[in-house]
């Protein structure tokens, strides 16, 4: 039977993600529009984003927090192009974005001393292989695989190299151990439901020391330059952005951060995301057709919740037919207005991906799940008739 109840907010995209509950354009009425971002008001708002971010995430006082261009991609490229090359690199990849960083390291930066440690979708590589005398590049949470590192215990606090962590779908949903991380990046469009094109770059004192003591062999675009005369440009980390930010997006981020504070800060955000994952876990446990892409529960993401279809008729299909069937399932749900953008990432195994970050209400996740059962039954029945 077709369900009768739809999610109140049927937005489950993994980026840009759902706005915080109760959001409306009225939240942006205090935006510093038509004003310079270098004016006193603009600087104050940019600094507010940094200060509230530090307080919610628990970033140590001597870690720098900067607002940078081009979303998480721009932030992580800044980190790699300015920090890498001084030591050998261990690059970890278990999904498409991690694989993209490997490509940049090998084909763009063209570093010679690189070890690539990989795993297939659904798995983590052997973290015990990582050599922390080298610089280490990894994603905390694989947005396209739904696989996350379980914690930071595998990273020594007394490491010699730097750790560069792409945390874009982990920040504000998972507890990041700052003493284990040296360069952390994320975008506004993920867990807090902000707008795209702005990234955040957080640097440890060790990363700053690297910036001030090491000069890369390659030329750096203006947007990547964080030092001047061999010293860190501290203004970048006080809201004096390298390029012009959108003050409308800045206002939206301030609103999102204030909302986060109102629900209990990081603990409240993590609890909401975990509740969303638990709702899906309870449904999967009873499902005769759906399973998690991550192979173990401890590496299962609570934000990018990735599912595969385990039913025998589906797994017997060739890869192209599996992809077509999964897309049909997602399209049926979308056509009913019950859930938007729930298809798996294009490079991932055929299946579904449901965003479970803190801005998504658990009641909406629970209302979505019966629609997945209904749509799957339609796809399976149609396939049986065509066979």
Mean pLDDT: 97
What would you call the structural class? alpha/beta
Strand order of the largest sheet: 1-9-8-7-4-2-3
What share of residues is helical?
Answer: 25-40%
Poorly predicted regions are: none
Q: How much strand?
A: 5-15%
The number of helical elements comes to 9
Q: Give the beta-strand count.
A: 14
Provide a brief overview of the structure.
This protein is α/β, with parallel strands linked by helices. It has 9 helices and 14 strands.
Written account of the structure:
The chain is α/β, with parallel strands linked by helices and 387 residues long. It contains nine helices and 14 strands. The strands form four sheets. It has a seven-stranded mixed beta sheet with strand order 1-9-8-7-4-2-3, sandwiched between helices. A three-stranded antiparallel beta sheet has the order 12-13-14. It is globular. The two termini are 23 Å apart.
């Amino acid at each position: 039977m077709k369900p009768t109840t739809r999610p109140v907010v049927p937005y489950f995209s993994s980026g840009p993600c759902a706005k915080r509950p109760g959001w409306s354009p009225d939240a942006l009425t205090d935006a510093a529009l038509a004003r310079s971002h270098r004016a006193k008001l603009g600087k104050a708002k940019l600094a507010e984003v940094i200060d509230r971010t530090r307080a919610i995430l628990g970033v140590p006082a001597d870690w720098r927090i900067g607002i940078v261009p081009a979303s998480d991609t721009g932030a992580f490229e800044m980190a790699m192009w300015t920090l890498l090359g001084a030591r050998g690199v261990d690059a970890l990849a278990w999904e498409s974005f991690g694989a993209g960083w490997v490509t940049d390291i090998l084909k763009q930066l063209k570093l010679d001393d690189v070890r690539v440690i990989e795993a297939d979708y659904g798995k983590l590589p052997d973290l015990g292989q990582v050599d922390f005398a080298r610089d280490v590049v990894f994603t905390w949470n694989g947005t396209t695989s739904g696989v996350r590192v379980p914690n930071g215990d595998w990273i020594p606090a007394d490491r010699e190299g730097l750790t560069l962590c792409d945390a874009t779908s982990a920040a504000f949903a998972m507890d990041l151990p700052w003493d284990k991380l040296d360069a952390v990046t994320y975008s506004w469009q993920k867990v807090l439901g902000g707008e795209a094109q702005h990234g955040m770059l957080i640097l440890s004192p060790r990363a700053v020391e690297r910036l001030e003591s090491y000069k890369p062999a390659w030329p750096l675009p203006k947007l990547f330059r964080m030092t001047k005369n061999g010293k860190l440009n501290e203004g970048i980390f006080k809201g004096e952005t390298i390029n012009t930010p959108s003050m409308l997006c800045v206002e939206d981020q301030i609103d999102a951060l204030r909302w986060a504070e109102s629900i209990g800060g990081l603990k409240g955000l993590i609890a909401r995301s975990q509740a969303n994952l638990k709702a899906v876990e309870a449904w999967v446990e009873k499902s005769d057709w759906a399973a998690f892409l991550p192979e173990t529960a401890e590496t299962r993401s609570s934000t990018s919740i990735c599912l595969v279809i385990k039913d025998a008729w589906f797994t017997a299909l060739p890869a192209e037919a599996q992809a077509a069937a999964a897309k049909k399932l997602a399209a049926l749900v979308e056509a009913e207005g019950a859930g938007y953008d729930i298809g798996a990432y294009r490079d991932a195994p055929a299946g579904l991906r449901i965003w479970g970050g803190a801005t998504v209400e658990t009641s909406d996740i629970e209302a979505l799940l019966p629609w997945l059962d209904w749509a799957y039954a339609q796809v399976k029945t149609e396939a049986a008739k065509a066979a």
